[in-house]
Specification:
heterodimer; A: mainly beta; 6-stranded mixed sheet; 5-stranded antiparallel sheet; 11 strands; B: mainly beta; 4-stranded antiparallel sheet; 0% helix
Chain lengths: 107, 116
């Protein structure tokens, strides 16, 4: 079993829909990162959180430490949100990455 | 603007050749990392460095080597000992301070290596 599991692996939705991507982990962590990878390969850090909830524009990330679970939400989704979203957890100096969720938003 | 520059973006290599991927950052970050990405797998850590002149093996260091002679530079050499080097390689850096915004990872655009 992977230490970091993401679901779904692939998600296709219509423009405007509310999107939820889930991340579950099995190890103790000091922080959790949500990353976005566009088709060209470059990765952008969206959030780093260790408790509660963070919001940036249409993106919201939540984490439940007791349940070892985090969610990334996108409100009013847009085709430019199409990308691979990656969850990563930090234990000491090391990050462990999920395999990513490929999101496609159809106009 | 501050960021991480990786070069080359695409690289082709013949079997048995060593190749060096460049990673330069002007963010004044202490920690730097090299990851490998393969289809269907999460990023895997090759090497990391927390300070100049010091680096540690990651999970898949065999067949790779690094150096950290300057704070801003962390080149990765893929040696002929790496049995399956075709992959996408990502360099990242992190400010290990305690100020707001610290500990966020910044990634380069990646280098795609293909062994012919």
């Amino acid at each position: 079993k992977n230490e970091v599991e993401q679901s779904p692996q692939n998600l296709t939705a219509q423009e405007g829909e509310f999107i939820t991507i889930n991340c579950s982990y099995s190890v103790g962590i000091s922080a959790l990162h949500w990353l976005q990878q566009h088709p060209g390969g470059g990765i952008v850090s969206l959030f780093m959180l260790s408790s509660g909830k963070k919001k940036h524009g249409r993106l919201i990330a939540t984490i439940n430490i007791q349940e070892k679970h985090s969610s990334l939400h996108i409100t009013a989704s847009h085709p430019r949100d199409s990308a691979v979203y990656i969850c990563a957890v930090r234990g000491n100096e090391k990050l462990t990455f999920g395999t990513g969720t490929r999101l496609t938003i159809i106009p | 603007d501050g960021g991480i520059t990786q070069s080359p973006k695409y690289l082709f290599r013949k079997e048995g050749q060593n190749v060096t991927l460049s990673c330069e950052q002007n963010l004044n970050h202490d920690a730097m990392y090299w990851y490998r990405q393969d289809p269907g797998q999460g990023l895997r850590l090759i090497y990391y460095s927390q300070i100049v002149n010091d680096f540690q093996k990651g999970d898949i260091a065999e067949g790779y080597s690094v150096s950290r002679e300057k704070k801003e530079s962390f080149p990765l050499t893929v040696t002929s000992a790496q049995k399956n080097p075709t992959a996408f390689y990502l360099c990242a850096s992190r400010d290990r301070g305690i100020l707001s915004g610290a500990n966020v990872l910044t990634f380069g655009a990646g280098s795609r290596l293909t062994v012919l």
